UniProtKB/TrEMBL annotation:
The keyword Ribosomal protein belongs to this UniProt entry's keyword annotation: no
SUPFAM superfamilies per UniProt: S-adenosyl-L-methionine-dependent methyltransferases
Record InterPro entries: SAM-dependent_MTases_sf, TrmK
Phylogenetic classification of the source organism: Bacteria, Bacillati, Bacillota, Bacilli, Bacillales
Any one Pfam family match given in the protein's UniProt record, by short name: TrmK
Official protein name in the record: tRNA (Adenine(22)-N(1))-methyltransferase
Coiled coil: 222-243
Claim: Electron transport is one of the keywords in the record: no
Source species of the chain: Paenibacillus aceti
Keywords for this protein: Coiled coil
Length: 243
């Protein structure tokens, strides 16, 4: 049985897809996807020896070696262009996900769907998607074992998506609060449209963290620290307006 987080990711796979799961660790997702018929073929990519060996073992135990290829390498280097139509990258920081996508851009030809689960730095991933012609079709948030996760699903097909200009257009949240594009990038244009308790909890936690940093930035008269403090204050006030 998959964790609730991996299950939500699996639910985003188009039926019968050809999947690459990058940073697959124990290859739990590819094994599940192939066994359930969600994927007809899968690549489990891993850059590190330990997780790569764990993935190989898991796939051998599942008896699915003919449909799951476990490969060692950095990011999208493990696949050839056109080999898969769906890519999942989960359980790492947003900046790392962006760097994997950027260095592997030539491998995205023919890829129709990306399912990305950054642990932090979701806004970097959203910006990358916009800059590279992808459209967010779904955003999910969940809490599991005391951690909050977001899952971003994107398509390359403009016909089946709300275009980014519209999705990230400044919008009125009511009571005079306007969400700028920067705020939508941070919180998520789809998540903010259907606020949930987990989303509220996440941002109350983020505000608390920022308040703590704000207190810790020295009270010295140094211009740089005064500037940092006022930037933080502005960010906090912006977020507090929404939550
Ligand atoms: N994707 C699984 C999940 O969500 O449960 C495993 C997440 S695990 C925390 C992150 C994995 O990404 C590690 O096994 C790590 O070795 C792998 N990884 C980190 N950077 C990578 C890269 N550039 N290419 C491939 N794998 C990478």
């Amino acid at each position: 049985k998959l964790s609730a987080r991996l299950q939500l990711i699996a639910d985003q796979l188009p039926p019968g897809c050809r999947l690459a799961d990058i940073g697959s660790d124990h290859a739990l997702l590819p094994v599940y996807a192939v066994k359930q018929g969600k994927a007809s073929f899968a690549v489990a990519g891993e850059v590190n020896e330990g997780p790569y060996e764990a993935a190989r073992r898991q796939v051998a135990e599942s008896g699915e070696q003919s449909r799951i290829s476990v490969r060692k390498g950095d990011g999208l280097a493990v696949i050839t262009a056109g080999e898969v139509d769906t890519i999942t990258i989960a359980g790492m920081g947003g900046a790392l996900i962006v760097s994997i996508l950027t260095s592997g851009q030539d491998k995205l030809v023919g890829v129709k769907r990306l399912v990305l689960q950054p642990n932090v730095g979701e806004e970097f991933v959203r910006s990358w998607l916009i800059e590279h012609g992808w459209y967010l079709i779904e955003e999910q948030i969940l809490e599991e074992d005391g951690k909050i996760y977001e899952i971003l699903t994107a398509t390359a097909d403009p016909e089946s998506a709300v275009l980014n200009e519209e999705l990230y257009q400044e919008r009125n949240l009511g009571e005079g609060v306007v969400a700028s594009k920067a705020l939508l990038l941070k919180i998520g244009p789809r998540l903010i449209a259907q606020p949930s308790e987990v989303l509220l909890k996440k941002w109350q936690g983020e505000i608390a963290k920022l308040e703590k940093i704000h207190r810790q930035v020295g009270l010295s008269s140094q211009a740089s620290s005064r500037e940092r403090k006022s930037e933080l204050r502005q960010e906090i006030e912006q977020l507090k307006e929404v939550w």
